[in-house]
Amino acid sequence: MTHSPPQPTRQQNTVRLTASLLITLAFVAVEIVAGLWSNSLALLTDAAHNFTDVLALALSWHALWLAARPANARRTFGYHRAGIIVALFNSTTLVLISLGIVYEAYRRFLAPPQVDAQVLTLVAMLAFLVNVSTALIIRRGSAHDLNMRSAFIHLAGDAASTFAAILAGIGIVLTGWHWLDPLASVLIGALILWNAWLIIRETINILVEGTPRNLDVGAIVGDLKGVHGVNDVHDVHVWSITQNMHSLSVHITTDDMPLSASAAIRREINHLLWQRYGIAHTTLQFECGECGTGLYCDLERAPHQASAS
Question: What is the pTM of this model?
Answer without folding.
Answer: 0.69
